[in-house]
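=== RUN LOG ===
request id: a7f3
mode: sequence -> structure
chains: 1
length: 301
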Amino acid sequence: MKIIKLNGNKKINNIVLALGNFDGVHTGHRKLILDAIGYSRKHRIPCFAMTFDPHPQEIVCPGRGLCLLTTLQERISLMAGLGVDGVIVKEFSRTISKLSPEKFIYDFLVKHLKVRKVFVGYDFAFGHKRAGTVLMLKKLGGKYGFEVNAVRPVATHGHIVKSSTIRDMLTRGDFGKAVKLLGHPYTITGKVVKGRGRGRRLGFPTANLKIDSDKLVPMHGVYIGRMGGRKCLVNIGSRPTFAEEKFAVEVHIPGFHGSLRGKVIKVDLYKRLRDEIHFSDVEKLKQQIRKDIKRLQAAPL
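=== RESULT ===
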């Protein structure tokens, strides 16, 4: 169990705990975590969030090929930004997946953390084959001396906010709704690697990102984003004008002339600008990129 202290003087026992996978740290997760923080501040008890790595579905049903909205570091950063005193990262394994619900709760919440109150989502499930329910958790709380608060579902724009719903939206290109359900821009983090230099030769140099294999990549297209305080264009796709190219995530920062090679950068995506287009010649591509840059510059980020 890895404990990341954001406030070093807080003890890691007798705590308020926000418990869940929290992939995406969307508006529903934020409600849960903020409720836990509010309770902790009122009662002067440290508040921690617990997440799992890898995601339980990656262990229990690896064939599904789950793609995540957030890397572990992105998740930690988002939760830290809400004001928790620390994040507890619990390694999830096949052995843990086979624990009975009571054994799971006793080992991790009672024995090690001595939780005072636990905040979970309305549909929280735990233990072997997800046999543990919120009702069971409340009964175990009565047995072991902690309270449970099950946070009701959050609905916005006609949807119950769930990570799976957001994944579907991003995959099919409904980016605007996905961002509204997230409550924040969609983040892509990656290491800048060597590309073919084609963007530079066109007059629009790009940073090519290598991202985690289990990170969800939105539907191919051109996006408006921000990196390090600067507006940027992000092209996600296979660059159809150049048929030999493979999939890539390319970031163009207008007016930036430095080198990012080898650095890990975080790009926040705010809006899907357009589909990826096949152009009959390079000049038409360059004309479209200039139009994209004008729209980027006019965007109120």
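=== NOTES ===
The domain at 2-159 is CATH 3.40.50.620 (Rossmann fold).
DSSP finds ten helices and 14 strands in the chain.
=== END ===
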